[in-house]
UniProtKB/TrEMBL annotation:
Lineage: superkingdom: Bacteria
Family (UniProt): Belongs to the cytochrome P450 family.
CDD domains (alphabetical): CYP107-like
Name of the protein in question: Cytochrome P450 hydroxylase
Molecular function (Gene Ontology), one example: iron ion binding
Length: 404
């Protein structure tokens, strides 16, 4: 057997099918050491039980800047420090800051309030598919899977429709870094996105409404709940995280269904299957391939391996979701799979706040699509599809489909 060496995690070949490599890691090196694009010692954890531990471990800090200490911060490339203004959000913080920041927005994402968006998501899905039906084909990513979640989160935050494409472009640029050159190229997007958010806040401050952005501004003005930088970073997180996972769920989920026609037909015949079907597509396609980084505040033992203090740790969600120790026939798509404790929304205190919204959007968008077009099929061979670059997310760049 060939020695185990790190692949190009963002290459087209790897993104198209990363699962054989992860399966080998689970067998040979479940806690895998390599050097990151910033030349720092890094560990990739791949087994379900170990990934669960990493996602919950109190000594693995999400505050990579704050937990690093003065010595490591001094060694950080200046380029990374440019990203610090957009990292002052709950995803990149530990308690008590994480608890304080999360409490400010969790009320907007409760299942009850998300359920109130059902009619809006349905109307939007119907309108987009009406437009596609007139053409007979579409790129499912840019004309459907992207527009649904971008529109919903932007409306929740009061972002003008004319700016939707702009912030989505910046978002894609920032999560697609695969090497130092990509990081350099993404600096203008960081600067422009930050400037845009500050201008958006200033405009909304002069004309408050009943949207989530206005609520966050009022929380900031109420005292020590949310400072100006945290407000910018929180909106950045909500705009980016509020659509990236769902884009890949809808597009990657559709691709999986088209590649498994018996499961697609099963979904059409059993409409009540949509909820477990979306859970299985979240597991099988893994829209979030790898979790964001964590920083070892002290020596941490995971899977029998000691990760030294100061090293970075990534959890391979896509690998955990295919772990044969947790799931029977993990490489089989089974829309009725039970139980299905996938990790696509994380675990612990950083469990995805927008999970109820992503589930709602995925269920409505996929159910409406497959029921509306019984002759839905790929308009290009699956092996010719291009995949999104970047380590964290996994989904097709484009998905040309024929509707009739």
């Amino acid at each position: 057997m060939q020695p185990l060496s790190p692949p190009d995690f963002s290459s087209q070949n790897f993104k198209a099918n990363p699962f054989p490599f992860y399966a080998r890691l689970r067998q040979e090196a479940p806690v895998y050491h390599f050097t990151s694009l910033t030349k720092e010692p890094t560990w990739l954890v791949t087994r379900y039980e170990d990934v669960s531990q990493v996602l919950k471990h109190a000594s693995l800090s999400k505050d990579v800047f704050g937990a690093a200490g003065a010595e490591r911060r001094a060694r950080m490339p200046w380029l990374l420090k440019i990203f610090e203004p957009v990292s002052q959000n709950m995803l990149s913080k530990d308690p008590p800051d994480h608890t304080r920041l999360r409490s400010l927005v969790h009320k907007a994402f409760t299942p009850r309030l998300i359920e109130q968006l059902r009619s809006r998501v349905q109307a939007l899905s119907d309108r987009l598919l009406d437009e596609a039906a007139r053409k007979g084909s579409m790129d499912l990513v840019s004309e459907y899977a992207l527009i649904v979640p971008v529109t919903i989160i932007a409306e929740m935050l009061g972002v003008p429709p004319s700016d939707y494409r702009k912030f989505q472009h910046w978002s894609n640029r920032l999560i697609s870094n695969t090497n130092l050159w990509d990081v350099i190229l993404s600096v203008p997007s960081v600067v422009m996105f930050t400037r845009y958010l500050r201008q958006l806040i200033a405009r909304r401050r002069s004309s408050l409404g009943d949207d989530l952005l206005s609520a966050l501004i009022q929380a900031e003005e109420a005292g020590d709940k949310l400072n100006a930088d945290e407000l910018v970073s929180m909106i950045f997180l909500l705009l980016v995280a509020g659509h990236e996972t769902t884009v890949n769920l809808i597009s990657g989920g559709t691709l999986a269904l088209l590649q498994h026609p018996e499961q697609l037909e099963r979904l059409r015949k059993e409409p009540g299957l949509i909820e477990p079907a979306v859970e299985e597509l979240l597991r099988y396609a893994s829209p979030v391939e790898v979790s964001t980084e964590r920083f070892a505040k002290e020596d941490v033992t995971v899977g029998g391996v000691t990760i030294p203090r100061g090293h970075l740790v990534f959890a391979a969600i896509a690998s955990a979701n295919r772990d044969e120790r947790q799931f029977k026939d993990p490489d089989t798509l089974d829309l009725g799979r039970e139980p299905n404790r996938h990790l696509s929304f994380g675990m612990g205190i950083h469990y995805c706040l927008g999970a109820p919204l992503a589930r709602l959007e995925g269920q409505i968008a996929l159910r409406t699509l497959v029921n509306r077009f019984p002759k839905l099929r790929l308009a290009t061979p699956a092996q010719s599809l291009k995949w999104r670059t970047g380590v964290l997310m996994r989904g097709p760049q484009r998905l040309p489909v024929s509707l009739s």
